[in-house]
Amino acid sequence: MRKWLVVAVALAALGACQRGAESSSTCAASASAEWSGLRVTAAAEGDDCASAQATLTIKDAAGATLFSETHAAANLMSLAQANDAAAMQAALADWINSSNNTMATSGALPDWPASTEAPESGEFPFYPEEGIARDRYLAIRAADAPLFCFVQGGESQACLALQNGVLTKVGVQLFPG
After folding, report:
1. Is 124 within 8 Å of 174 (Cβ atoms)?
2. pTM of the model
3. Which parts of the chain sit beneath pLDDT 70?
4. Which of 11, 12, 94, 165 is the most buried (most CB within 10 A)?
């Protein structure tokens, strides 16, 4: 009887350990897509999805990194609600889906009239990246170059223009979150 009690206790302990291992979930997910001949990847990793870090990387055809940026997934509107690895993977795929983009080319960027301090874009203001002066902004806009915009906060998206194999962070557009 005592031998069976010891075996039962050992099996119960083993089951508890296995359940503990299963409940300590991690959040590891990734997605990739093509955009204008470039490879866009998004990856998230963390002890859980609420504390995961999400990295967006864009590489050229040779594999050279043209852009990479990491954010707390909880701070990104499009990733914040992902509560497990499967949901995070779907959210990452949506995050880098360029067909969700409201501005496919730099020609769709709002105009920046000479008499204003920044581009005029109605209720969704666009703020040029630091170092992007009006003349450079207007040249990027006139080039009508491929534009990749991605959610980079709770109520904003960052936009990158591709010209001659170089990505330029043009600025950030606010939107209601």
Report:
1. yes
2. 0.83
3. 1-25, 177
4. 94
